[in-house]
Design brief:
The chain is mainly α. The protein has helices at about 5-20, 20-30, 40-75, 80-110, 115-130, 135-160, 165-185, 190-200, 205-220, 225-235. The protein is globular. It starts with a helix and ends with a helix. It comes from Favolaschia claudopus.
Length: about 240
Amino acid sequence: MPGPCDDHVYLAKVFEQAGRYEDMVASMNSVASFNCELSVEQRSLLVVAYSNVIGSHRASWGTICSIEQKQESIGSPMRLIQSYRETIEQELTKACHSILAVLVQHLIPSSVSSESLIIYHTMYDFGLNDIFADSSDRQKANTRKSLSSYKAASDVAVNDLCPTHPVRIRLGHSLYVRYYEHLNSWGPDETSASLYALSRQTHQPDDFSVTALVRECMTRGCGKGSLLVFIMKASTSG
């Protein structure tokens, strides 16, 4: 006989078909609250729910920002547009905090499979990435948390998954994208210092080589292609 968890999963599927992604998020949050390992199907439903909620808010935010810029150039009143943009930012930040809370309080502690742990740590970065920080210090703190989350995912991948495992390969690609964004936003000295401090936390020799490669890439002004080679070597080593 189906239990409460099955009912929430069923409703999540119905909400997905109806395009009611906020309700889908609520149903999957209820599933996560049972503190059990999610199945592949349940995990996919969770990702779909949050991806659509956060993605739709991000798209709306981009549209409003574009309108705001156009109106500003012609001298139109900006109060209403700015107010609505801030509303969207608050809603987006709320959705991001929601997934972070679910991950930290339920999903990561309850996970027993390597694949799940890697995906959840990657989702943690997904939630952090769209939070509107109210200061540069807060943004940098979020960035450090993001890198730490990827470091945790990478440790699991290297220890438990073979280099050709699809989850490990996808993690390598995600690492490339995220590290490249951080390199551009922080600048060479600050990023190198942060990555070095991150590797020092775990005392893994390979971490120092990855840090050295990233620092070398930045010093020489390498493009995305070269950095991709560096990161993919790091993510598939072992």
